[in-house]
Design goal:
The protein is an all-alpha fold and 125 residues long. 78% of the residues lie in helices and 0% in strands. It has four helices and no strands. The longest helix is centred in the C-terminal third of the chain and has 42 residues. The protein is rod-shaped.
Length: 125
């Protein structure tokens, strides 16, 4: 259970890091940002990504709480139930993380495509 709880904690940390970095991307001012409304709509992919990462952190919270409950009991039946629930919660956390990450990867692919094929710097004009 400790290994799963540690892995869950690490995933939650990655979720927070990705959310913070993506917010920084949205609020930054850069010459490499699209100006057209159509291509800027790719930033809408952040919303479901954030949502899935928040769900992942919620599942991580459940893992941590169940791990604490397991530390407070010595009954084998209860430990087995908690262990099964922790496995389900961690699997769900990992799935939510992967789905959330997929939205950010999709955004990055669209951004790179735009940058390679459509972006013109002031020096190129």
């Amino acid at each position: 259970l400790k290994t799963i709880a540690d892995g869950s904690k690490e995933l939650s940390g990655w979720c927070l890091l990705i959310i913070a970095a993506s917010i920084a991307v949205v609020v930054k001012t850069s010459n490499f940002s699209p100006t057209g409304r159509g291509i800027r709509s790719m930033y809408l992919l952040f919303m479901p990504g954030w949502l899935f990462l928040v769900f992942s952190m919620y599942q991580g919270n459940l893992v941590a709480r169940r791990y604490m409950a397991a530390a407070l009991t010595s009954k084998l039946e209860i430990l087995q139930e908690i262990g099964a629930a922790v496995n389900i919660d961690f699997a769900s956390q990992l799935t939510m993380f992967q789905i959330g990450l997929a939205f950010f990867i999709l955004w990055l692919l669209i951004y790179l495509f735009w940058w390679i094929y459509y972006y013109e710097s002031k020096d190129e004009k």
